[in-house]
Amino acid sequence: MSFCLPEQLATEFKKRLKSGEINPDSFAELTSDQRRSVLSDFLGEEMAKNTNALFESKLLLKNQKAGMLTWAKTVAGLKPEIRRDILAKVERMTEVLNPKTEKAFLEDLASYKLGVNISLSEAVRISDLAKKVSEEKVSMEKGGDRMDYGRAVVEFNNYVNDLKIGKITLKDIIKSPTEIAGQAKSIKASFDNSAIFRQGWKTLMTNPGIWIKNARQSFTNIWNTLGGKNVMDELNADIVSRPNYDLMKKSKLDVGTIEEAFPTALPEKVPYLGKIYKASQDAFTAFVHKTRADIFDKYIEIAKASDIDLTSRFELESIGRVVNSLTGRSNLGRLEPIAGVVNNVFFSPRFAKSHIDVLLSQPLGLERVGGQRISTFARRQAAINVVKIVGGTAAILTIAKAINPDAVELDPRSADFGKIRIGDTRFDVSGGMASYITLAARLITMESKSSTTGLVSKINSGEFGALEGTDLIYNFFENKLSPAASVVKDLLKQQDFQGRKPTLFTEAQNLFVPIPITNYQELRDNPNSANLLLAILADVLGIGTNTYSIKSDWNRNPGVELTQFKNKVGEKKFQEANDLFNKKFNDWFWQLKENERYQELTDDEKQRVMSSKRAELKQDVFKKYGFTYIEEKKTKLPKF
Amino acid sequence: MRICFTKSQLTDFYNKAVGGVKPEIPLIKGEGELKIRGLALGVEQKAIEAKLTKSFGDLPDYRTVNLKEQAQKSADLLNTDYEKAKRVAMGQETPPTDLLPEMVFNAVEERALREGDITTLKDLGTTSELLSEATTMGQRIRALGERNPESPVAKIIEVVKAREKQSGIADVGKAKSQEAVKIKNEIAKVKIPKETWDSFISSLVC
Question: Which residue of chain A has the CA closest to B177?
Answer without folding.
Answer: A107
